Amino acid sequence: PGGAYAGRGPSNVVLKRSEVVEEKLEWGEWQRMFDRKQAVKSFKHFWYNRLGRYTQFVEPKWEDVWQQREERSQVSYENEADGWVTYWDPQLGQEFYYNRLTREYQAAAEVVPYDEEYNGEGYGEGYVEGYGEGYEESYEGGEQLQLTNG
Questions:
Q1: What is the pTM of this model?
Q2: How far apart are CA 45 and CA 58, in angstroms?
Q3: Residue 150 pLDDT > 70, yes or no?
């Protein structure tokens, strides 16, 4: 051990020559990186934290990542009936969601909770909060049936 690969992850030199091969909304500030010049297969892939500006070879502990995001974020909307809380993460400039009843985190509004008070008014046809223009939703008996991009 030692050299460019000592410690948690590769050096800044390796980071600069590497490319992002995967990133997902649910990963927040984390990106999966790939170093084409690395000869040792086990060192080719690594993780990069854009906010902390550090690298590591071990996959992040996602439960800890979500908890850190929640701590640094502000509540922007809360629906007590179904437990969903919308958070605004100012460091990433993104919303994310947490269900206090199921203890589940979600990066995107995959299912937009039906709220009789809100009922989507004010956005206009074809707009679904969390998705943007072009999406349409259909409801039956207060439950969302379908979300389509049409």
A1: 0.68
A2: 10
A3: no
**Cα–Cα distance, 55 to 85 (Å, whole number):** 31
Three-state DSSP class for residue 17: helix
CA distance linking residue 72 with residue 69, whole number of Å: 5
Instruction: Return mean pLDDT, the chain.
Output: 79
Separation of alpha carbons 136 and 79, rounded Å: 21
Write phi, then psi, for 121 (nearest 5 degrees): -65, 145
pLDDT of 80-100, one tens digit each?
A: 999 999 999 999 999 999 999
Question: HSE of 81 in the Cβ direction (CA atoms, 13 Å)?
Answer: 6
- Can you state the percent helix, strand and coil of the chain, rounding each to 5? 15, 35, 45
